[in-house]
């Protein structure tokens, strides 16, 4: 039910009174029902009042302090006669209960392109509470917030005016509409640019396009200039539309700068933009030609064709291998691929005293600047005579003056021979024609031979002495004397020509010890024996035990007569069993062989019978077969296990069995450099092959080797590592050796001299591991100390400097290093706590620090303590932790990080989810890894087929290679133009694939391979 307020009815009453109604009466109020449930209170005037009492409070108005009874004293009541109104807050003559609220219009100013500008709406009312309502939205912007606290955002790039309207309400009444007028000031707009990353080939010509900077916003006016800043900014220019090109006069050289890190700003009439980064990588191409030094040498006139003059000194090969040398004179001289100059003709000092030539060297970048080659021809004395050795014989007791013979003159020289000279003028003489004659008599029993020399002299001098050997022949003067004989026992034999014994001479002089023949005078039953002119008795027929003994009467004869006879007793015994020893065959894991079983087993038969062999028991992994004295072994199962077979040897009567073992020599370790390969076998033998400039191979020559070449005879090599044309190796004695290229001291011998054979470095005997970088070397000893030496441009040695080191230099004081690996210009290592460290060049993120800056000392990477295996590539790394997880970081131009992108990774990043990796190798632009299942995976650059998948397309995630082969180790090598790979199977077979320009694959060819190819041993 609703009721009308009593105060309202009082107001009606007052109105009535004021109109002269109900004067001097105070009503009593009675509620009366009305329509719609409304109760109306009706005043009943049943009492007269003599004084006015407006509020009927029985206090007359003249003394009442609150005449209208509204609870507000008369002095404070703006409407003292109206109990429903007492306040007029705004003083407008209308009470608060009936006054409408007000909404206040206003004007605000904001800037162009600003967001959420605050506007506080205002209004007023006699009431204590009002609400706000937005009536119309702005046309050139948007509102936000909750009234009265709202925000305004002008439309982008808009400057001008805008407005919106609103009203307020006090709970009963709305205000009039108010307007908020907004002025948007025009604000100066400068351009906005984005960071730029791009690349350009070194030596790019002026105008070559690098890329386009993204202009996010050009501002309020056209861009008038875009300006680069930073080191090397003068190599580039930028158009007003953001196109970066190579500037006229630019010098882009990868070997000097591999990346330009610049900033750029854009300018319009309003000013400059905020600077953003511009990173431009310079990609390497073959552009540096070789540098040669002037060459001078001398040769004697008349030297033989093909005589070596000398080798041109190569100051620098440039940035690719030298393919040829060219001489300006190819008539008189020739030069080979190693720069060795040889003669092509003979020379005469009297005709030409010096040849002045030039020489150039050519590599992929082109031909070098020609340098001088000055070859002097030296005069020599006129040629002396040349004689041949002379030999002759004369009989003892010949007459004095007997002619012995004439010395042969090979060449008289360039003038007539004037004399011959013998070294012995007592027994012989020689005349001007070279005829030798005796000067005395000779006795064979005194001297059997005279050994002299002879020379010939002409106007040039005396020639070389040649041998003159004159034998004295014996003339028999007494009959022979035979030595005492001894009984000879032999077994029954079916052999004809079986050796029995020898009859010897035993005289007191030479004549008695010289016989022209021996004879069996008697006792030779059935003619079973004969005797040779040198006294050897052999069987003529087969022997049996039916005749158990022979007594042969034997004489010796010479020109004087017959000797006194001697008797030789020969006893025939039953057959004896042959003897032979077990023996071993050593061969490579996938090799077959043929050996002489008779010699290898020291087989013999005491009876002199012929021995034959046959295979009794075959091998497990191969097949034995016998042909005559040859034993063949053909391996049928590839393995490095020892095999065993049994041979049965017989003389036709008795037999013996021997064991033949086969030991397989498998490949043990393989390491790849840029152009050549080093490997060891299970017996500790060392092999190298590939390009051999500067003695890279280590065999004492500069001849390229296209198949594995054994280095020395040592069998105690334990650990090897290959760098840029040089090799480090440790033997079982802990000794360190090095050889090859040494321009920056990377061999560690204190010099910069190249070495073409292994040389020992220092005297230490506790080296345990080595890691060869491109031109710097690292090694760890058994005390856990780290040493480094060689090129140090970027601090890759790790001693805190950038100075090259020419001998092993201790790095820090730590004694817990366990593994180290060298990249092109950086190094990584692990200590025994499983912590990973890196140092050197960091421009490609290869240090893993999260940035691209260099470090000159070992720098801890992350906080992990479970690193176990590492490999440093050209500018990227790969590592495995103790959980078998694979991580990569650094350069990724060819997908060599395996994360499916070509983006640089600045910190070690987990690749895949596998946890069974146990072997890795990082190359120039490709990576390989083996897991515990002996599966091989490859990814990255593949321009030379170095991934082994049969293609030349780059791969960006680990991809399995040759799934039919089980693998145990792998190595990646080469450079961007000549990348290649080698791996050893679980049974020790060596496989190779990739580039083969220098024979570095070792298969005897120069043909690239795109799948794993086994090589011979």
Automatic annotation (TrEMBL):
<dbReference type="GO" id="GO:0005509">
    <property type="term" value="F:calcium ion binding"/>
</dbReference>
<dbReference type="Pfam" id="PF00415">
    <property type="entry name" value="RCC1"/>
</dbReference>
<feature type="domain" description="Cadherin">
    <location>
        <begin position="386"/>
        <end position="482"/>
    </location>
</feature>
<dbReference type="InterPro" id="IPR015919">
    <property type="entry name" value="Cadherin-like_sf"/>
</dbReference>
<dbReference type="Pfam" id="PF25390">
    <property type="entry name" value="WD40_RLD"/>
</dbReference>
<dbReference type="Pfam" id="PF00028">
    <property type="entry name" value="Cadherin"/>
</dbReference>
<protein>
    <submittedName>
        <fullName>Proprotein convertase subtilisin/kexin type 7</fullName>
    </submittedName>
</protein>
<dbReference type="InterPro" id="IPR058923">
    <property type="entry name" value="RCC1-like_dom"/>
</dbReference>
<keyword id="KW-0732">Signal</keyword>
<dbReference type="InterPro" id="IPR000408">
    <property type="entry name" value="Reg_chr_condens"/>
</dbReference>
<feature type="region of interest" description="Disordered">
    <location>
        <begin position="65"/>
        <end position="112"/>
    </location>
</feature>
<dbReference type="GO" id="GO:0016020">
    <property type="term" value="C:membrane"/>
</dbReference>
<feature type="domain" description="Cadherin">
    <location>
        <begin position="102"/>
        <end position="193"/>
    </location>
</feature>
<feature type="domain" description="Cadherin">
    <location>
        <begin position="192"/>
        <end position="292"/>
    </location>
</feature>
<dbReference type="InterPro" id="IPR002126">
    <property type="entry name" value="Cadherin-like_dom"/>
</dbReference>
<dbReference type="InterPro" id="IPR051210">
    <property type="entry name" value="Ub_ligase/GEF_domain"/>
</dbReference>
<feature type="domain" description="Cadherin">
    <location>
        <begin position="291"/>
        <end position="387"/>
    </location>
</feature>
<dbReference type="InterPro" id="IPR009091">
    <property type="entry name" value="RCC1/BLIP-II"/>
</dbReference>
<keyword id="KW-0677">Repeat</keyword>
<dbReference type="Pfam" id="PF17963">
    <property type="entry name" value="Big_9"/>
</dbReference>
<dbReference type="GO" id="GO:0007156">
    <property type="term" value="P:homophilic cell adhesion via plasma membrane adhesion molecules"/>
</dbReference>
<feature type="signal peptide">
    <location>
        <begin position="1"/>
        <end position="23"/>
    </location>
</feature>
């Amino acid at each position: 039910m609703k009721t009308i307020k009593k105060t309202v009815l009082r107001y009606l009453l007052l109105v009535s009174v004021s109109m002269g109604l109900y004067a001097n009466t105070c009503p009593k109020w009675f509620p009366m029902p009305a329509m719609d449930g409304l109760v109306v209170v009706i005043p009943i005037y049943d009492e007269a009042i003599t004084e006015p009492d407006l509020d009927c409070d029985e206090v007359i108005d003249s003394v009442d302090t609150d005449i209208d009874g509204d609870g507000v004293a008369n002095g404070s009541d703006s409407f003292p006669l109206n109990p429903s109104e007492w306040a007029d807050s705004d003083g407008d003559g209308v009470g608060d209960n009936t006054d409408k609220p007000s909404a206040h219009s206003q004007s605000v100013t904001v800037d162009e392109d600003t967001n959420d500008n605050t506007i506080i709406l205002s209004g007023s009312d006699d009431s204590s509470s009002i609400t706000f309502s937005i009536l119309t939205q702005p046309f050139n912007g948007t509102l936000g917030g909750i009234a009265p606290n709202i925000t305004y955002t002008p439309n982008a790039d808009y400057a001008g005016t805008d407005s919106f309207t609103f009203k307020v309400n006090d709970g009963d009444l709305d205000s009039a509409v108010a307007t908020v007028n907004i002025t948007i000031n025009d604000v100066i707009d400068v351009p906005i640019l984005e960071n730029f990353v791009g690349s350009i080939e070194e030596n790019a010509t002026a105008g070559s396009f690098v890329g386009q900077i993204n202009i996010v916003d050009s501002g309020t006016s056209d861009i008038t200039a875009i300006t680069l800043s930073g080191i090397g900014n003068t190599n580039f220019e930028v158009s007003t539309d953001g196109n970066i090109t190579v500037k006229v006069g630019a010098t882009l050289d990868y070997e000097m700068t591999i990346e330009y890190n610049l900033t750029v700003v854009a300018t319009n009439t309003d000013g400059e933009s905020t600077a953003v980064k511009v990173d431009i990588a310079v990609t390497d191409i073959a552009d540096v030609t070789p540098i040669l030094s002037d060459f001078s040498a001398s040769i004697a006139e008349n030297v033989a064709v093909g005589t070596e003059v000398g080798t041109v000194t190569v100051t620098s090969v440039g940035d690719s291998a030298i393919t040829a040398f060219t001489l300006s004179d190819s008539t008189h001289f020739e030069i080979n691929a190693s720069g060795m100059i040889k003669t092509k003709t003979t020379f005469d000092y009297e005709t030409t005293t010096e040849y002045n030539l030039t020489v150039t060297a050519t590599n992929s970048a082109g031909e070098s600047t020609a340098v001088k080659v000055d070859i002097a021809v030296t005069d020599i004395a006129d040629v002396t005579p040349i004689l041949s050795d002379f030999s002759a014989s004369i009989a003892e007791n010949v007459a004095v003056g007997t002619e012995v013979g004439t010395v042969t003159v090979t060449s008289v020289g360039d003038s007539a021979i004037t004399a011959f000279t013998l070294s012995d003028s007592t027994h012989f003489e020689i005349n001007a024609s070279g005829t030798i004659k005796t000067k005395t008599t000779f006795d064979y029993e005194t001297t059997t031979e005279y050994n002299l020399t002879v020379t010939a002299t002409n106007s040039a001098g005396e020639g070389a002495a040649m041998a003159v050997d004159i034998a004295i022949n014996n003339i028999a003067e007494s009959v022979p004397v035979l030595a005492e004989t001894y009984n000879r026992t032999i077994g029954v034999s079916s052999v004809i020509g079986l050796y029995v014994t020898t009859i010897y001479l035993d005289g007191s002089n030479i004549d008695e010890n010289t016989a022209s023949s021996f004879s069996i005078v008697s006792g030779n039953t059935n003619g079973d024996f004969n005797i040779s002119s040198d006294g050897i008795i052999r069987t003529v027929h087969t022997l049996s035990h039916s005749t158990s003994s022979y007594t042969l009467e034997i004489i010796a004869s010479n020109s004087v007569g017959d000797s006194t006879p001697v008797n030789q007793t020969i006893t025939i015994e039953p057959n004896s069993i042959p003897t032979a020893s077990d023996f071993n065959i050593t061969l490579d894991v996938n090799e077959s062989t043929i050996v002489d079983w008779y010699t290898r087993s020291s087989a013999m038969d005491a009876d002199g019978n012929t021995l034959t062999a046959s295979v009794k028991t075959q091998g497990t992994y191969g097949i034995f077969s016998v042909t005559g004295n040859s034993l063949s072994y053909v391996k049928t199962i590839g393995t490095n296990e020892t095999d065993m077979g049994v041979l049965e040897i017989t003389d036709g009567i008795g037999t013996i069995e021997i064991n033949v073992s086969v030991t397989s020599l498998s490949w043990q370790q393989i390491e790849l450099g840029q152009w050549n390969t080093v490997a060891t076998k299970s017996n500790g033998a060392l092999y190298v092959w590939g390009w051999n400039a500067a003695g890279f191979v280590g065999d004492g020559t500069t001849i390229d080797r296209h198949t594995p070449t054994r280095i020395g005879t040592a069998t105690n090599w334990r650990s090897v590592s290959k760098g840029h044309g040089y090799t480090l190796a440790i033997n079982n004695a802990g000794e360190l050796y090095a050889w090859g290229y040494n321009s920056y001291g990377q061999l560690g011998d204190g010099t910069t001299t190249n070495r073409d054979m292994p040389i020992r470095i220092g005297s230490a005997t506790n080296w345990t591991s080595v890691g060869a970088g491109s031109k710097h070397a690292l090694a760890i000893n058994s005390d856990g100390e780290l040493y480094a030496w060689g090129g140090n441009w970027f601090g890759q040695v790790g001693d805190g400097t950038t100075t090259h080191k020419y001998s092993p230099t201790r790095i820090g004081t730590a004694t817990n290093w366990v593994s180290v690996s060298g990249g092109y210009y950086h190094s990584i290592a692990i200590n025994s706590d499983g912590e990973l460290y890196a140092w050197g060049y960091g421009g490609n993120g290869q240090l893993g620090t999260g940035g691209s800056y260099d470090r000159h000392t070992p720098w801890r990477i992350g906080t992990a303590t479970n690193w176990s295996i590492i490999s440093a590539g050209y500018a990227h790394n790969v590592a495995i932790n103790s959980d078998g997880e694979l991580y990569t970081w650094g350069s990724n131009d060819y997908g060599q990080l395996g994360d499916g992108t070509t983006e640089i990774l600045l910190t070690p990043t987990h690749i895949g989810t596998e946890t069974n990796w146990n072997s890795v190798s990082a190359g120039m632009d490709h990576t390989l890894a083996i897991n515990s299942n002996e599966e091989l995976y490859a990814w990255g650059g593949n321009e030379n087929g170095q991934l082994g998948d049969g293609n030349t397309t780059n791969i960006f995630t680990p991809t399995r290679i040759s799934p039919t082969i089980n693998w145990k180790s792998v190595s990646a090598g080469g450079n961007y133009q000549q990348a290649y790979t080698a791996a050893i199977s679980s049974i020790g077979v060596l496989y190779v694939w990739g580039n083969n320009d220098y024979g570095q694959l070792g298969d005897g060819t120069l043909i690239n391979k795109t799948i794993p190819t086994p090589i011979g041993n």
